[in-house]
Fold these 2 entries.
Entry 1:
Amino acid sequence: MTTQDLITKIGLKPLSKFEHRDVEGVFVSDMLSDVMAGAKSGNLWLTIQTHKSIVPAANLVDVSAVIITSGKEVPQDTVDLASKYNIAILSSDLATFELVGKLYGLGLGAK
Amino acid sequence: MIKGALEASVIEGVDRLDTEVEHIYASDLMSDVLAFGRPNSILLTGLATQQAVISAHMAEFVGVVFIRGKKPKDGSEKFAKDNQLILLSTKLDMYEACVRIDSTRRGRYSGAKGSWMRQGTEEMSLSREFFIQGSDFANAGMVSTKVKSILKKIGFDPKLVRRVAISTYEGEMNVVMHAKRAKVDLSVTPGLIQVVIEDEGKGIPDVELAMQEGFTTATEEMRAMGFGSGMGLPNIKKNSDELDIRSEVEKGTTLQMRFFI
């Protein structure tokens, strides 16, 4: 499954500029240090953190996309930085729990 | 770099091999060298005479490489020695020598995968210095992002790059959260990537305790931003091949992280 497939199937809103890529597994956390330690390359990262420090973290662990849940507004500097590093920031109006359910339904597991 | 790329032997100047070469000039016509050669170049030539060495000196070159295994038989060596020039000799012909230097240079700077490592010798290395400002949350993670870009460009295995990037990030976050400032040294040598983060700050009173998962001294504010769950140092240990921590209370902490290539 690619980021493009997800956007169409779940109705996510892309905020940054990025190239589509394969998605493998999902990681949910609002603690950056937890992401650094636990997320795997290619994971989707679901969070409500919107501070721009999520961008280096996403870049360094090499997640396939960051999904900001609960329709939380993302500051422009976060979006700009993400575009600069080709990091996908997607937005969903669903709460993390509901979104996880949908992703699970699509066959995405924890990797 | 050039000696390695050309598998050259050293005729003169073995103690000056670390001299920076800015340009390469390939020619057998010494009038061209004098007319077009730029300072700090190295001359590739088939003219194995003292004239070549003198011309190189006049054009302020750092040295001369003789191709096709040629070696000057006149007083070139002494002239080179007296004037601090490097003389090398390679068995390659002019075309092959130029190609090798170019591909080695490209491998090093734009990342033909690992080629600079394969062609390189012990002189091949890269070192970069960065600075981190304590409490600068706005730019937190930017140094490790740069380190990642550099290693990715060289063409290292993405898994290795990821390990270095994550370890550097954790170290960087520790500086942002707890120290005043730090200097970061990245060095790449054949077989080893090393990142040293040397901070000025309050130091770690009990390193063993800090190494335990979940131990944290982060404030509520830091935790609200998603930092400080006590995974930093343990995560560095997990991702690096060797980790040394030296810390002095009220002075600072130095992390030395090594990754085998």
Note: Chain A touches chain B through 22 residues (CB under 8 Å).
Entry 2:
Amino acid sequence: MTEKPNIFDRLAPALLVLGALLTTAAFILNFTSAPLVQGALLPDNGLAVIGGQVVTNKLLLSQKIFYFHMPVAVTSFVALLFTAVFGVLFLVKRNSHYDLMAKVATEVALVFILMTMVSGEMWERFEWGVWWTWEPRLTTYFILMLLVIGYFILRNAIDDAERRATYAAAFGIIAFIDAPISLMITRLVPSGAHPVIFRTDSGLSTPMLIPLLLAMFGFFCLAFALYRFRLRQQTLKARLDALKTNLED
Amino acid sequence: MDPILAEIYSTILPAAPYVIAAYALMWLVLLAYVLVIVTGQKRTEKQLAALEEALNAKHKQ
């Protein structure tokens, strides 16, 4: 009944540990070596020298949320890319395993979308004093979250496995289209809340970039490990259900 | 405290609960998914054991 774990399944526990270590390191560096960013100018041209540097602005702690917020958002886009790729593979090859892989990738995407939303909400509530605003990135990302939730509603609404897989594959591909839109929207409609980070002059110094990149790779590792654990469990469940059906027949 | 320094650090303490909440909620969401995976795995293993038991009982008859 149980099949031999493949290379990805064998890698998953190591990636889980590596992910935990990288994100922990990112968390520590975030609050130790990464400097606080400067916010609004001090009134009456006030200035002070802190650690040998002239500070003319208020220092912002809320920006510390960004070091995990952005990596989890990027991870959600990557997970959705896998949803679309497996969806295409299912439509081409009609192999139900690709449907299962797409479903699990979408689950992981939803987890990271929720993480992005809750962290973004906390930043927004403090900085803007509101729980929600229709800013371009927020709006497109909110639509993405609704599409991903819709993907699971669609799956639950269809009983026939073949039809469910086909519709879900098509819906997954369509949902993914919103990911690059959400990613690129700040280049088309510039927003102060979501600056363009991946450019040659992002304004992030090395002590800021290191925790950001560590968190990014850490969350990639965690997402992949969780994906493999869940896929293995779901594959086993699917085989068990098929076996039960065969025995009942 | 120096009034200028007080102004520089004026947003640090009010922001702290939001920063803590952001990190706590992110880990909570991740932990919830880990729990979903673990409980799903346990349920599947239990079903597998029940099926094996039923098949063994059938063979003995």
Note: The first strand of chain A starts at residue 37 and ends at 41.
